[in-house]
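Worked example

This section walks through a single chain of length 335. The input is the sequence exactly as stored; nothing has been trimmed or padded.
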Amino acid sequence: MKILVTGAAGFIGHHLALRLVSRGDSVVGIDNLNNYYDVTLKENRLKRLTPFPAFRFVKLDLADKPAIAALFEAEKFDVVVNLAAQAGVRYSLENPQAYIDANLVGFTNILEGCRHHKVKHLVFASSSSVYGANTKLPFAESDSVDHPISLYAASKKANELMAHTYASLFGLPCTGLRFFTVYGPWGRPDMALFLFTKAILADEPIKVFNHGNMVRDFTYVDDIVEGVVRVIDRPAEPDPVWSSIAPDPATSFAPYRIFNIGNNTPVDLMRYVSAVEAALGKKAKIDMLGMQMGDVRSTSADVSRLVAWVDFRPETKVEEGIAKFVEWYRAYYQV
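Given that input, the structure is written out below as tokens.
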């Protein structure tokens, strides 16, 4: 298949592109290489892909409508995987416009490209953050997600609604994937594992919010990629039992599906810190802080629908995944 991967220089995007070219797909990767975090890290991710003849990189911004339209016209993709987005809950408090440009304007351009060029399947990244103020655990795709508590979460909820519209109007098969706290080698420097590892090695205190009383469904990146690949290979279909009287928000009369991808084993934040300490062989200095705006105390994924759809359940234990990250971090930064 010929597959477009947006955000190909990103954490998940480059891992996915590697997997796809390794199995024989032709991949065009796009990314705008913005400076939200270290551009050199993004460039080094891309260097892992350049040896593959089946991979080609195009530096492109999703919000550039004429350029995106020209790309779709020239390439005739079979499948599109949209991972490009302005990420981060906390950054959305500082720079909301970046989320509008990338996550709403950019996603519209992707939808239009898919619509006009008969793409067979659009797979797009949503987020566990859409569950917002929900406190019923585990989070299930059938739950209402109408109370986001960050602009990032609202933009991801909007993506789900926009995709449904195109699935309904134009028959575009769309599958949205709600990722739960992804971590692993080549990860993002703004995420907890990266920040903890860097600080502990530098003998600096780590910031632990809500005084450590937090729970996350940490999901190893290889598990995320496996789930995405399996979903690519099974396009969304209309749900034959969908009811307009009692509508399921995660399926539809249209070819549209939403799935959680999480490790379905919530981990206490302090256990996560202990696993980092064990992998580094060094104790952390800890600054206990209050809750941050836009953050939630607990996340937990019900993945029963994913299992039923593609027969896959993420299972990597955090101690194993953290050890692999630390091994990569020490090698990459030579520490």
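What to look for: The chain has a mean pLDDT of 94.
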